[in-house]
Amino acid sequence: MSAADFLLSPGVQKLLTVLYAHPGQQFSPLELAKTCKLDTDELEGTLGHLLSSGVLTKCKPAEDQAEQVTANVSFVFYQELRTIALKSFAAAEPLRAMLRSKFKESVLRAFILGEAGAAGTLELLIVHGKVAPDQAALAAALQKVVKAISRQLQVHVLSHGEFRGLGPRDALTRKLASKSSFEIVALGDTKAEVPTERVSLLRRATKRLASLAA
User: Fold this and answer.
1) Which stretches of the chain drop beneath a pLDDT of 70?
2) Who's near 151: CB < 8 A, 6+ residues apart?
3) Is domain 91-185 classified as CATH 3.30.300?
4) CB under 8 Å, gap of 24 or more: what pairs does 146-149 form?
5) What is the CATH code for 3-84?
6) What is the pTM of this model?
7) How far is Cα 200 from Cα 150, in angstroms, rounded to an integer?
8) How do residues 34-49 score in pLDDT, each as one tens digit?
9) CA 102, CA 138: separation in Å to the nearest integer?
């Protein structure tokens, strides 16, 4: 049970996953029912609760449209709720569960770097160990998560060596250091093995020269 489960009901989590993924978009109750897979009674009750508390707001419909709702970006705890959603049910938890189960032999670490662009695309960094994840299998698994969380993903896959070799001027280094970045799979969370570092030819030559000069 996560902190989000303690704070928010499953119905609220399903609605906020969709609405917070597209904060500027308007949805009809019918669209939300289909997308979130909620029955009529649960949808009406949950929408009523979120509207009365100010988390969502009603939109003035066109003449030929049903009443629509959208995320209330002026809600006093909008940013806090959106951050909770991102770090738990709306992104981090589905991605973590998928990576730790389907790719436990290959994925060493993973980070959500934040959102890119107005569409709210999530940037994901995956670091693999000795064994690299199968590209086709990873793409298929990520596509399922994309469908579940109603967000697009921009994915970076690096080997452990490439990750360790990132310099201070690399774009990924800056993103990792930003406040929007957080780790979703830590070293030791999976069975993936850290590859043995090989001493490069240059380092070997340097050591050999140093020993000869000693």
Assistant:
1) 1-3, 5, 118, 197-214
2) 21, 90, 91, 120, 121, 122
3) yes
4) 148/94, 149/17, 149/21, 149/90, 149/91, 149/94
5) 1.10.10.10
6) 0.85
7) 44
8) 999 999 999 999 999 9
9) 9
